[in-house]
Design brief:
Number of helices: 16
Helix content: 55-70%
Distance between the termini: 28 Å
Number of domains: 3
Radius of gyration: 24 Å
Number of strands: 7
Strand content: 5-15%
Shape: globular
Structural class: alpha+beta
């Protein structure tokens, strides 16, 4: 019954992905007719049932996916035309995310006040230093030149973050703190967590910021490489586990509330944490999935993990179709799907103590989910990832819960921060040592090898099932 209930959302998800890809192929357009047809078909799904409804829903989301992608591309093209040409100009805008970039440069996505477009701002020298100290939500006054955003190369990826143009030769001529409840609350929450890590050494502090908030800007390149080459880089990106950790910290308070206030409080915590972690693609997936689960529980209709994931991803893609080009989003979805589909069956088939079986099953399931994305994007996956995750998971989970609580407490009471610092550093040191050891051991699985492994595992599973069926048939 659970699998049958998940078929509808999964088919709808496949339909919206297909529609988005078709819309990208067709290119920029207002797509008003397609949008209207999609809405009309979606409304008509209420008057049919059974498989007919599923077919109608798939057609509706296919049309909607096509329309939203064409409209998003049209917005980029019109933005590029509006910002094309001209000499040096002064602009005012608001930072969409935290500045990043190399040591002597800085870049940031900025939403202009007029015209209402997002541009990639790049600065160097002293202006890079001025830009780097700002945060998402801060308002800036800039002077520079508009250029077309490159279609190829590193900066081309910002196109899928809705950047319409490049703003270069930038001078920062003024800035103001963030305005509005959400940006200010997000920065306050972020500052409160990071304030509790000030007593840590620079590298552990940077890694802790990655664990808790997904902020990897200050992590040394060699440490980042170890996490990547060992398959542990997902620990430095906010995921569903981080959202669960946040809810776990506030669970004692939420349990004291009745259903409606508890639901509203949980949703507010999820939204605040998502804002503090800058709505990164993996954060969006985790927050949307958690929101679907919370709302389903509120209405008294708990939803299976696969069904909840399909609904969450479907909604996100209709809101922002460019997420299909986000590797982080695809990896997050793949890991969540792998865990939802495979972790329980694997845990039942593995031998050993329960806690070890469950940890290893989750690691293998997540790796199975992300492997297709990794192979398609990078052409290989680290061979020791399951081992690295099994060794690092207990410390990573402890760091997620304890580190978050200690960060908040340490920010409020600095003396307590000095007490908790040694334990946080020990947890970070263990995970980093695991990453370094597994990365140094090397070994990777490329696409041909992965196909051979999948074939061998499939044959083994079929053979095992066949051996089980022979005694059953003989007994009958």
């Amino acid at each position: 019954m659970t699998a049958a209930r998940a078929i509808g959302p999964l088919l709808a998800l496949a339909g919206v992905v297909a529609g988005i890809l078709v819309g990208e192929h067709l290119g920029p357009a207002p797509a008003r007719l397609t949008l209207v047809c999609g809405v009309a078909v979606a409304v008509s799904a209420w008057i049919v049932d059974g498989w007919t409804r599923r077919v109608v829903v798939v057609l509706a989301v296919l049309l909607l996916g096509c329309a939203v992608m064409q409209r998003a591309l049209d917005g980029l093209e019109s933005g590029a035309r509006a910002l094309a040409g001209g000499g040096e100009v002064d602009v005012r805008g608001q930072l969409v995310g935290d500045p990043d970039g190399p040591r002597f440069g800085a870049s940031a996505l900025v939403r202009l006040a007029s015209p209402d477009r997002i541009v990639l701002v790049k600065a160097s020298g002293d202006d890079a230093g001025r830009l780097r100290v700002l945060q998402a939500g801060d308002r800036v006054d800039l002077r520079g030149r508009f250029e077309p955003l490159p279609r190829h190369g590193y900066d081309a990826r910002y196109r899928w973050q809705h950047a319409s143009a490049l703003f270069t030769d930038t001078s920062v001529i003024g800035f103001q703190p963030a305005r509005g409840v959400v940006p200010r609350l997000a920065n306050d929450v972020r500052a409160a967590i990071l304030r509790g890590t000030t007593t840590l050494a620079p590298t552990p502090r940077a890694v802790t910021a990655g664990f808790l908030l997904g902020d990897t800007r200050a992590i040394p390149d060699d440490v980042t490489a170890d996490y990547r080459d060992s398959g542990l880089s997902h620990l430095l990106a906010v995921s569903g586990a981080n959202v669960a950790f946040v809810l776990l910290v506030f669970a004692p308070l939420l349990r004291r509330l009745s259903l409606l206030p508890r639901t509203a409080g949980a949703l507010a915590i999820v939204c605040s944490f998502a804002a503090a972690t800058r709505f990164e693609p993996s954060v969006l997936r985790a927050s949307a999935l958690t929101t679907v689960t919370i709302l389903a529980t509120f209405v008294g209709r708990p939803v299976a993990p696969v069904r909840a994931l399909a609904i969450a991803v479907l909604g996100l893609l209709l809101i922002d179709p460019f997420l299909v080009h986000s590797v982080g989003f695809l990896l997050s979805c793949g890991a969540a799907a792998g865990i939802a589909l495979l972790s329980r069956p694997l845990a039942q088939r593995l031998s050993g103590p329960r806690i070890v079986r469950e940890q290893l099953a989750v690691s293998i399931a997540a790796q199975a989910g992300v492997t297709p994305v990794l192979l398609a994007t990078f052409g290989s996956v680290p061979a020791l990832t399951p081992v690295a995750n099994l060794l690092a998971a207990p410390a990573a989970e402890a760091l997620g819960v304890f580190g978050l609580a200690a960060g908040v407490v340490g920010g409020v009471a600095p003396p307590l921060g000095r007490v908790t610092a040694p334990l946080i550093e020990a947890l970070v040191a263990w995970v980093t040592a695991v990453a370094h050891g597994c990365a140094s051991a090397g070994g990777e699985i490329r696409t041909p090898q992965a196909l051979v492994i999948v074939a061998i595992v499939s044959i083994a599973m079929v053979a095992r099932r066949a051996r089980r069926s022979v005694p059953d048939a003989a007994s009958r």
